[in-house]
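can u pls check wat happens w/ iron/sulfur cluster
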Amino acid sequence: MSAVDKNTKVLLDPFGTTMVEDYDHLCKEFGIEYFKPLLSKVPNSNMLMRRGIIFGHRDFERILEAMIKHEEFAVLSGIKPTGQFHLGTLMTAKEIVYFQKQGGTTFYCIADIEAYEDNRIPLERSEKYAVENVADILALGLDSKNAYIYRQMKETRVKDLAIMFGRALTLATAKAIYGKRHIGLYLSALIQAGDILLPQLRDFGGPKPTVVPVGVDQDPHLRLTRDLAQKFQRKYKFIPPSATYHKLMKGLTGSAKMSKREAADSLLTLNESPEKISHKISNAFTGGKATIAEQRKLGGIPEICPIYDICMFHFIEKDEDIIKIYNECRNGTLLCGEHKKQTIDIVLDFVNEHQRKRRKFIDKARAILGVM
Ligand code: SF4
């Protein structure tokens, strides 16, 4: 929602700027449940869960029960084809792959209508990005044989649902949720609701628990969809969708969210050259002090540092290693220059391997999306 809480500086806007300074307050304000109490029951919990990066949920118990009892559930997420995969979108990719491995029937949506309405990306251009984005997600481990990957623009069932849902959304409610926006954005919110409920249509086996793993800035879409699921319950027997929410990863410039809306220097994509990656990390904002002497004496602040986020969200697997980085930053043993060099090496290893795998999936991505 484009809601601003002036006291705690929380702003959630899936079509614009998002800022969260206090996740506890956010949970309280918007009725988001904490993920931590469920953690010990989650099968094969991953690094994002263990570290509290996935911090919140709505109705995740339903998914947990299905996972534990090996019953049917679905997972749906997607990407706006507005540019290259970056470290922020990598989180959602890891989450969908995780749920697929836990037995979820998998849906991956290419949100080309939203790219058009929100980012003004013409379909011819978003098609190119869509192919690349799908090659990325396949290289990251999504099993296409057991997934339905589709473009909003081509998925009539999603558009049909959106048209029907339009009857249940007044302009006043749309404004209350998303702020004053052009009709196209309200329409794309309805399309997203269609995406989220698509797995529950009869064509896909009917109602089933469905989890949507996303960044918390997408919560307004989830609240709208859960409301629509109730309103159309009698006709479709929808089960209100569940969600897991991850924290937002900072941009390299120190911005609140690594996002394609930000300047290019703020983003680290999976498909840029080693030189660019090195340059961007070397020049990134940090939580360090102005001089080495000062940092040795006072230590850095990992909580505000995007380099620390890169390590914690993605690249340092062992929990004891990330704790060591945190402590050494805090006590001034680790300096930013040295830490940036280590991070460049780790990121380049990952990106080189990813790009090698991804090249092999480009033709497959074209075939999946029907792009010649
Ligand atoms: S030492 Fe590392 S984590 Fe600490 S402020 Fe510098 S770059 Fe960030």
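The longest helix spans residues 336-369.
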